[in-house]
Amino acid sequence: xxxNLSFNLCPFFAFIGLIITFSNLAFAxxxxxDSFCVDKIKGNNVNATNGLYMINGDLCAINPNETGDQNxxxxxxxxxxxxxxxxxxxxxxxSGSYAIRGVWVHLGGSAGKPYDPNGSNPEKFKSxxxxxxxxxRRYLVIKLAYPNAAEETTAYLCPxxxxxxxxxxxxxxxxxxxxxxxxxxxxGSAQSIERRLDKLMDYLVSNNFIKMPLGxxxxxxxxxxxxxxxxxxxxxxxxxxxxxxRAGGVKASCYIAGAFDPPDSSNSDAADWIESSxxxxxxxxxxxxxxxxxxxxxxxxxxxxxxxxAPQREAPSLVYHDKWGNEIKINGAYSDGHxxxxxxxxxxxxxxxxxxxxxxxxx
Length: 363
Description:
- This protein has helices at residues 2-25, 128-136, 154-157, 167-177, 193-206, 234-245, 272-275, 297-307, 337-343, 348-356; strands spanning 39-41, 45-47, 52-54, 57-62, 77-82, 102-107, 139-143, 217-218, 221-222, 227-232, 252-256, 285-291, 312-315, 329-330, 334-335.
- By secondary structure, the protein is an alpha/beta fold.
- The chain has one domain: Rossmann fold.
- The model is unreliable at 1-28 (pLDDT under 50).
């Protein structure tokens, strides 16, 4: 009897195994975000009542505490996964109209958190519109939580003409590497951009949560020359620093309403790291966007010129509207071009020209 029972159960277990295998492959178009995301927004979700806007993929929030020794003082990481990310074999798509083009890392502005666990829905996830535009271009996008508190910005730590020799550059290098380059800040290796990106990608790969696009993560480390970096405001300046001064550079970079630090001394027009003729990376592709009604446009333009950015796009002064048609205002008074650069739906054409079709996204 036991023999017959054993024989009869074999097809049953084989069937269960087939179901498990099928669940891993047939649904492999997207990673199983439910298994590791603190919070998520599913794609094809445009709901003005709930304030959700995600068309071209899914957003996932990850607590940095889960990835290693990083803290969550800067919010949680936000990951954007394009639809049809995997092929039928559970591998990242490399061909056809759904091919994944690579990894795109975005750095937010000062005090901005990619995902704010203490915020109110639906805006716990920041930069939904821009992340959706990146996913539309078939990139896995990482909005990294990194050291960007207001008291850690170069504007705060290195006032114009008062910082001394390469003040802003030393602060940015310490934020990148965690090595003690500056006496103005103490980041520590665990909280650095390099460490945070490294630990996040390792967490996703080693736990088989999300496979990385080909060439972007090799032998347990991110491959910066295969990764696009962008940033807004303070984050744009940090992205520009990485592109210019990290050995090996990056694949491409795009700066939105940013990429400038004030001069470290009175005989300069901009920070030493921007004016420096030393470029520790290969020549890289850059794009930039400035928007009317941004009172810092003169500085952004100077920074873009000194960095040799091409193309540079400047959107006109408009009444800027968000994804729901609401005017984007500063202090409720007038249209704010600085915020609109990232969040205005009626500036999508200019982001396209700066970061995608003519700028950093050209392949």
